[in-house]
Amino acid sequence: xxxxPRFLDTTLRDGEQTPGVNLTPDDKMSIAAxxxxxxxxxxxxxxxxxxxxxRSAIRAIAKxxxxxxxxxxxxxxxxxxxxxxxxxxxxxxLVVPLSDLHITQKLKKTRPQVLEASLDAARYAKDxxxxxxxxxxxxxxxxxxxxxxxxxxxxxxxxxRICFCDTVGVLQPRKVEEIFQALRALGPPAAFHGHNDFGLxxxxxxxxxLSGAAQAHVTINGxxxxxxxxxxxxxxxxxxxxxxxxxxxxxxxxxxxxxLVSRLTKMPVGLxxxxxxxxxxxxGSGIHIHGMRADPATYEPIPPExxxxxxxxxxxxxxxxxxxxxxxxxxGLRARPEQVDEITRxxxxxxxxxxxxxxxxxxxxxxxxxxxxxxxxxxxKELSVVSGNHMTPTASITLQVNGREVVEAATGVGPVDAAxxxxxxxxxxxxxxxxxxxxxxxxxGGTNAVVLVIVKMARGDKVITAQGAREDIIMASVEAVxxxxxxxx
Length: 489
Ligand code: MN
What we know:
The structure is a single chain. The chain is an alpha/beta fold. The protein has helices spanning 25-38, 52-62, 78-86, 100-106, 111-127, 144-156, 173-183, 201-210, 232-243, 254-265, 286-294, 321-330, 337-352, 359-370, 415-426, 473-488, and strands at residues 6-9, 42-47, 69-75, 91-97, 131-137, 161-166, 190-194, 215-218, 282-283, 312-313, 378-386, 394-401, 404-411, 433-442, 451-459, 462-470. The chain has 3 domains: 6-265, TIM Barrel (Alpha-Beta Barrel), CATH 3.20.20.70; 282-370, no CATH class; 378-488, Double Stranded RNA Binding Domain (2-Layer Sandwich). It is 39% helix and 21% strand. The strands form 4 sheets. Strands 1-2-3-4-5-6-7-8 form an 8-stranded parallel barrel, surrounded by 7 helices. A 3-stranded antiparallel sheet has the order 11-12-13.
C-alpha cells in the first residue's frame, strides 16, 4: 500500500487571510483542536512574524499536546524564523517567491539574491531544530528550470519537504500532473498549495496527489485569499469516493468542523458548496424523492451520514402525496388518505405563495393535521377578527359543537386574545376547560413563516398540550385551542 496522502491544513494561516476574517487566540485554539480531531497531519497555525497576539496563539497551539505537527509560516528572513522558534513550533512553511514577476516587482531583487537568502534561512532553521517545508511562492508562473535548481539546492540543505504553490490558481490538472511527475526525481517529498481563482483548486490538488505529491495544502470550507484555497472536505471526498484512495481524515466530523469554522470566522458557507453546503444533501423535486424511496443512491453520490450529515427534504408546490407519505413513514406516523390530502394541500398552498417548506415546517403541518381526531366534536366554521389602533380588538366566531352551530363574539387585549375569548364564550357548556399556557414560535424565520402555537390546556386533573401551525398567528392559535378542546372533551 502506498502511504496515505498527507494534509497540511492552512485554515489558520491562508484561511485567516480571507478578506474580513480575524480570529482571536481562543478561536484559533478551538479550530486547531477540531482540525486535530479530524486527523490532519500538519496544522499551519499562523504566521509568527505577524503580531504578539498571533505568536501567543501559535505558542498555545504548539503547547496543547495535539497529535498533528504544528507549523508556522515564515519568510526567508532570520527574524521570522526567530519568531517561529519563540513559538516552539515543530516546523516552518518557509515561503520563497520564485517567479520573476515576484522577484523583480515585489522583492526588487535578483534570482541569485533570493535563492541565496532562502537557502541561508533554511539552513538557519534546520540548525535550530525545525523541520522545514521549502515552499516556492508563485511557482506556477516561475521559470521551471530555475525552480528545479532551487528545489535541488534546498534538497542539499537538506530540507524536509518541498512545496509547489499555485499562488494565484492558474494551473490546470494536466499541467499539475506533468509538474509533479518531474518533481518526483528531486528527492524530498513534495506538497501542492492550490488556490481556487478558476474553480480548479480541488481538481488540481487531487491531480497533484495522484501524480506523486505526498501532501496537499487545504482549508476548511475552502477559505483563503481571494477565491480561497482547495478545500479539505472536497479533496478528501474526491480521493475516497471517486478514486478509492483512503485518507486518515475522520469524514464523519467534517460537517461539525465546517460549522465551527464558519461560526468563528463569521464566513457563511455557500448553500451549494459541495459536502458542507446547506443544500448538499437536500432534495426538493418529487421525482427525486420518488427515486430515493427505492434507493437513496439514485440521487446521492455521497451518503450523508458518511460526512456527519442527514438527508433533508424541502417541500413546496412540486410536492406530491408520495413525498408526504415518505415523510410520514420516516416519522413513524400513519395518516388516513384525506389527511394526506390535507397535508399535501397545505404544503402546496405555501409553495404557491413562494415559500420554501422545510422539514421542520412540514412536521408542524403534519402534527397539526394529525392530532385532530376522526370526528372532532368542535369544528371551526367561520372566524373574523378586527384589530387596529383606536379600536377594541373584536372577534366573532361560528363553531359547530356536536353538530349544532354556535355564534359568539368577544373582545380582547389583542386579536389573538379576542379570538380565544370568543371560543371560550361559545364553549360556555364546557367551562371547566382551562387554557393554562400559550406559547408561540416561528418555525422558520421571517414574518411570513409558519407560526407554531403550542397550548397547555386542562380539564380537572387532565392536562394536555396541543398545537396549531399556520402562516397566520390567529388561525394557528385558534387551531391549537380547538385541538386542545377536542382532546379534552
Ligand atoms: Mn496561499
